[in-house]
Amino acid sequence: MYKQVQCKALYMIRLKCENRMEVYIFHWCFLLLALFHGSNQADVIIGHYKAWWAAVTLPNTTVQAMLPDDFELVTIKDWIPPGTHPVVLEMGMEHDCGPVWPKPLQSTFMEFKYEIPFIKRKDIIKRKDSEATFNYKSIIYVDSEAESFASREVYRLNSSVVKPVNVSLENGAYEFNYNDLMFKAFFTPKGAWNTTDAYPGFKQYMNIMNLKWFGSPELTECAQHHYDFTSAKIRPAAMTVSVDHNLLSPMFPQGVRRFLGLDTAPGELGTVEVDIHFTMTLPETCD
């Protein structure tokens, strides 16, 4: 584990390197980090996450069209309307995120995630992992070249660098620009900060965030967050969001949409603001 953290640390330093050969060396060190780890690898990434989570329900056919060809939706029966499936927007800031050691290499950055939870392989031949349920992190947007590089090269995520326009958790705003395409979301708190068990609907978010996730359509490697839900603070938040066409998926609805807060939206999960600590694994076999 020490060597893996060393590689991560070296990569985080690489942005200060001007020599292209040095950057090349750091690049390959980070790739080796992803190759030399065991299936029982302890979490080596930590962070403090402040974000809004929003589960958006869309027709099954629409969400299925967003998936890689080898995957299909897992039917959800109890907390969303029949014939629909959630996609999840994570709109947040990662604080003090990075290797567990040394602390000076941890950083703070904006991170947006567009993901499709509760999916499984469409296996013709029975596989060891054919019944496993995953979360497909389809698109990642960050404001850090370093973090975007790490997401692509180690975790095989579809990560791009965006320009924050107005990202303020204190003022309930989350706006960014990617190639002249805009994402705009605004939030209004609808409840007091409390523990996770104070809001029954949050259990479904916990189920989503506990899933193993992947970003490459080939599903060669997965990773997993381990959130500290015991100490987390959460509160419902109403959301107004607009997304330019093709910023997320061509099938994602355009125009302005409004969502109620957690536990206040009949037939919907609702939007929630979270303040939570986590650890994260390195990539490992999806089993």
Notes on the structure:
The chain has five helices and 16 strands. Strands 1, 2, 3, 4, 5, 6, 7, 8, 9, 10, 12, 13, 14 and 15 form a 14-stranded mixed beta sheet that branches. It has a two-stranded antiparallel sheet with strand order 11-16. It has 287 residues and is of the alpha+beta class. Helices cover 17% and strands 41% of the residues.
Provide a short characterization of the protein structure.
By secondary structure, the protein is of the alpha+beta class. Helices cover 17% and strands 41% of the residues.
Helix run count? 5
Q: What is the count of β-strands?
A: 16
- Determine the structural class based on helices, strands and strand pairing: alpha+beta
The ordered string of helix (H) and strand (E) elements is HHEHEEEEHEEEEHEEEEEEE
Q: What is the overall shape?
A: globular
Strand-residue proportion: 35-45%
Distance between the termini: 21 Å
Biggest sheet layout? 14 strands, mixed
Indicate the radius of gyration in whole angstroms. Answer: 19 Å
The portion of residues assigned to helices is 10-25%
Overall mean pLDDT stands at 85
| Low-pLDDT sequence parts | 1-28, 30-40
